């Protein structure tokens, strides 16, 4: 009979048995058998958790323009019918997606978007989606009718040679690769979701339609897999898929991506070739442990599988997605290569046609020679990222004796290995596009090679910095490695063709290249956190850039100068330099520098300085600039995040969260799910929740960030100190002083920064522990002055807290001196509450100091009323601020001042 797309459950209700299995559906089936038969989360969860059987459509029912001909199958995601399309006179498969698979409006919208994406995908190895629509509030898909069987049934029907099995899977793999190129991820690849027609054409179906299903108690950890399925953890994350084919990241509750499809494909291929699954386990926990630890079974002897095929499968089964193939195309290429077969085909051809083969062989020889021209890119990594450089960086990191040094090294090695591997592959492909495939011009190849050389120089400068690493450098090493310019820019034709040509004069061109070399080193020094080392160099480089008169390098120099000022907290100075960068880029038609300048202005002016009136205009400029350069995922993620911060500063919290959600998939794509950029995003989201007083959601978000930090950078990494500091702020806002103090104390152990000293000092002030507060706040002031100088706006925070501590200790002279200095600090628009606190504390000191004059007491009332005005108008008060406000109103009332 014909097997339809999505008909994972045969019509006669044999839930966990194959069509060739003659046992009754209710007989016991072993865990291994259930997994090998592909019992999906859809099927098992549907059997146990759905409240009732679906209502089937009768023959002759009309759905859209389609006429139902009969029921073909049912699965957890829906029911599949044979149907007739009268307009095009053809048979179709009609899939009615369950309305209860995700009843939310958001869930339905997502299903419809993915169905529309499927409909745009056209490939011979993907089941075509002809039409989508709604019928009685149910989404339906009209799909290509495949007259055949599932790949699982095809494998079980007879014993097949390795070559034939591999051929079938290669077809399925090409379908997956085509889907990935269109932005679709399958999420539940297995032999049951692959169909073979009578001509043995293989097609993949059900892309992106699998949904998470709530799990009944009988499916929890420890039960047999035959009655088990994915679970929902704390109502915050869920697993989808089929147990045997699920990836380590799915078992951890993380989002599935194209690399996850690659892993599931290799599980299915291993099973098809060796007639056993690669991972053993009789319970969920056993299977999950085997998968997440990468314990692949030894294959049976004499399987006939070539070693190169087995090696490719093992790589695809890597626990870490970064160690799998870069794409399905690369995996398929590794599976397809057969040097012995090619060699014997050549020998046979020569023997058969003799001299007549001279022309084809000459062409083949010429082609191979062209390919040889494109080899050797890996040799250019010598001294940049080879074994010697790796040893030098490793020794430098470990030599710091920091507790997080080894984790920092392994993280950097992983990121730079991947970057170097992609650089070699992309550069070789660019060469072959001209020299072998004749797809691009020589002039475009030259532009791409210049781009690759620039990326290599950037990588060299960073590894140079790493070989002289100290504790501060390795603390920022992961972010620095992830901050390397993405290689995708070297393939963006529009952006490359739009680059301004270098000066025609040889001396001028050399001067430009010299400046660019300096800027690359400045960038690496800044990324490594050595700001003081970079400042004098960037000043000289900017002067030299101006003297060249070459617009693009002038813009690049101003950008580096602005980034350095921003890193040091000089937002106003950075803003001025960013405008100069944008103007220089405009004059030179330098699209990339223009986009970078406007994107960073969104944060520097719109967010950091709370210039809310400017924020929308700056954001529009950034969007336009990014679009003009042909798009850039990295810059777009930065723009979205920066604009979200400005929205949060305007109390537009829902809009801010929406922008952060738009940035999240771009960050995952560019940097990865466990990157420093993702940790930064989660911290920013937590800040929005904090402002909304959604403290539990903020804590949950920060705990996710902390989990990523510990798993990717280690528990002792200083970045954990920042997260713990934020958690301490949250607990203090919930008036959990002891928990807050513990977080701040641990933050100081990991990363002694002034912010943590200020925060723990504030907690001690609220608890009346003024001596403990004084010690921390004096240390904070000392550190902050060393960082930013004696006149920085950021000094208001330690000065205010320290003034409170002195007042609590009844040290009125020091309290008055410190608080007077706090009132002189200007320029931080976010410091309103600290200013109010400083005014009120000084008012109290002026009235309670035995040496205070009548003028002092008169001034105290003015200060207290000014403080009350700030408190009343400040929209972002915390519960701690509310307590202070109540104390102030009580004090004013006691001194005869009433609202």
From TrEMBL:
Binding site for ATP: 95
Residues covered by the Protein kinase domain: 66-341
Region (Disordered): 1-47
Superkingdom of origin: Bacteria
Keyword annotations from UniProtKB, A to Z: ATP-binding, Kinase, Nucleotide-binding, Serine/threonine-protein kinase, TPR repeat, Transferase
Keyword Cytoplasm: no
Biased composition (Basic and acidic residues): 16-35
Statement: the UniProt record of this protein carries the keyword ATP-binding: yes
TPR repeats (start-end): 679-712, 754-787
Molecular function terms from GO: protein serine/threonine kinase activity
Pfam families per UniProt: Pkinase, TPR_10, TPR_12
Matches recorded under InterPro entries: Kinase-like_dom_sf (IPR011009), Prot_kinase_dom (IPR000719), Protein_kinase_ATP_BS (IPR017441), Ser/Thr_kinase_AS (IPR008271), TPR-like_helical_dom_sf (IPR011990), TPR_rpt (IPR019734)
Descriptive protein name: Tetratricopeptide repeat-containing serine/threonine protein kinase
Organism expressing this protein natively: Pendulispora rubella
């Amino acid at each position: 009979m014909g097997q339809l797309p999505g008909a994972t459950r045969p019509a006669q209700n044999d839930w966990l048995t194959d069509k060739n299995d003659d046992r009754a559906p209710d007989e016991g089936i072993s865990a291994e058998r259930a997994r090998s038969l592909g019992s999906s989360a859809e099927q098992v969860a549907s059997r146990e958790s759905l409240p009732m059987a679906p209502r089937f459509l009768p023959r002759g029912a009309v759905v859209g323009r389609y006429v139902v001909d009969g029921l073909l199958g049912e699965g957890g995601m829906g029911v599949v019918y044979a149907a007739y399309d009268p307009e095009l006179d053809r048979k179709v498969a009609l899939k009615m997606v369950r309305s209860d698979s995700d009843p939310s409006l958001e869930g339905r919208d997502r299903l419809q978007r993915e169905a529309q994406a499927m409909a745009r995908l056209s490939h011979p190895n993907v089941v075509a989606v002809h039409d989508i629509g709604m019928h009685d509030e149910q989404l339906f898909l009209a799909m290509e009718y495949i007259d055949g069987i599932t790949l699982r049934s095809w494998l079980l029907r007879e014993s097949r040679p390795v070559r034939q099995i591999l051929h079938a899977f290669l077809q399925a793999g090409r379908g997956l690769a085509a889907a990935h190129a269109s932005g679709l991820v399958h999420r539940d690849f297995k032999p049951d979701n692959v169909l073979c027609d009578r001509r043995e054409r293989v097609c993949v179906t059900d892309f992106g339609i699998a949904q998470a299903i709530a799990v009944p108690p009988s499916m929890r950890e420890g039960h047999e897999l035959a009655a088990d399925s994915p679970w929902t953890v704390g109502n915050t994350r869920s697993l989808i898929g089929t147990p045997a084919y699920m990836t380590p990241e799915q078992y951890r509750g993380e989002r599935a991506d194209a690399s996850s499809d690659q892993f599931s494909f290799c599980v299915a291929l291993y099973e098809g070739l060796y007639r056993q699954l690669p991972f053993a386990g009789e319970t969920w926990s056993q299977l999950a442990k085997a998968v997440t630890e990468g314990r692949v079974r030894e294959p049976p002897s004499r399987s006939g599988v070539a070693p190169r095929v087995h090696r490719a499968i093992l790589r695809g089964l890597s626990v870490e997605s970064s160690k799998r193939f870069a794409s399905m195309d690369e995996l398929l290429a590794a599976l397809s290569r057969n040097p012995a077969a090619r060699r014997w085909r050549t020998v046979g051809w020569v023997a058969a046609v003799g001299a007549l083969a001279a022309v084809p062989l000459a062409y083949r020889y010429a082609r191979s020679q062209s390919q040889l021209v494109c080899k050797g890119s890996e040799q250019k990594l010598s001294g940049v990222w080879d074994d010697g450089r790796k040893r030098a960086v490793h020794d430098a990191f470990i030599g710091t004796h920091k507790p997080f040094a080894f984790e920092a090294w392994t993280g950097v090695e992983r990121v730079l290995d991947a970057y170097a591997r992609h650089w070699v592959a992309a550069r070789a492909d660019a060469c072959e596009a001209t020299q072998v495939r004749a797809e691009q011009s020589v002039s475009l190849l030259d532009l791409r090679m210049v781009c690759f050389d620039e990326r290599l120089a950037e990588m060299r400068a960073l590894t140079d910095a790493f070989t002289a690493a100290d504790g501060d450098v390795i603390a920022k090493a992961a972010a620095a490695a992830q901050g390397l310019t993405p290689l995708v820019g070297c393939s963006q034709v529009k952006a490359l063709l739009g680059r301004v040509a270098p000066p025609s004069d040889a001396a001028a061109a050399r001067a430009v290249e010299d400046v660019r070399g300096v800027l690359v080193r400045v960038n690496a020094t800044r990324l490594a956190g050595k700001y003081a080392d970079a400042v004098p160099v960037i000043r000289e480089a900017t002067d030299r850039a101006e003297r060249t008169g070459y617009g693009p390098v002038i813009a690049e120099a101003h950008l580096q100068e602005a980034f350095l000022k921003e890193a040091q907290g000089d937002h106003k100075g950075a803003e001025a330099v960013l405008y100069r960068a944008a103007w220089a880029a405009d004059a030179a038609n330098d699209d990339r520098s223009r986009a970078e300048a406007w994107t960073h202005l969104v944060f520097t002016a719109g967010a950091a300085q709370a210039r809310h009136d400017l924020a929308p205009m700056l954001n529009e400029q950034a969007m336009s600039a990014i679009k003009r350069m042909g798009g850039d995922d990295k810059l777009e993620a930065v723009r979205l995040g920066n604009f979200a911060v400005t929205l949060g500063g305007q109390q537009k919290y829902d809009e801010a969260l929406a922008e952060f959600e738009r940035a999240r998939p771009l960050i995952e794509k560019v940097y990865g799910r466990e990157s420093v950029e993702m940790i930064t995003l989660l911290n920013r989201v937590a800040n929005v929740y904090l402002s909304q007083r959604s403290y539990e959601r903020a804590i949950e978000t920060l705990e996710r960030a902390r989990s990523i930090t510990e798993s990717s950078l280690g528990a002792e990494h200083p970045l954990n100190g920042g997260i713990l500091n934020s958690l301490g702020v949250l607990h203090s806002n919930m008036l959990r002083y002891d928990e807050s103090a513990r977080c701040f104390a641990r933050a100081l152990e990991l990363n002694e920064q002034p912010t943590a000293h200020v925060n723990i000092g504030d907690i001690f002030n609220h608890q009346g522990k003024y001596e403990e507060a004084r010690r921390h706040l004096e240390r904070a002031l000392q550190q902050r002055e060393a960082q930013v100088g004696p006149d920085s706006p950021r000094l208001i925070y330690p000065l205010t807290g320290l003034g409170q501590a002195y007042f609590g200790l009844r040290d009125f002279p020091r309290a008055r001196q410190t608080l007077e200095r706090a009132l002189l600090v200007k320029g931080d628009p976010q410091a309103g509450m600290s200013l109010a606190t400083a005014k009120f504390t000084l008012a109290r000191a002026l009235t309670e100091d035995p040496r205070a004059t009548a003028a002092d007491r008169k001034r105290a009332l003015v200060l207290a009323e000014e403080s009350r005005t700030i408190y009343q108008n400040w929209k972002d008060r915390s519960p701690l601020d509310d307590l202070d406000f109540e104390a102030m109103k009580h004090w004013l009332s006691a001194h005869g001042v009433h609202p």
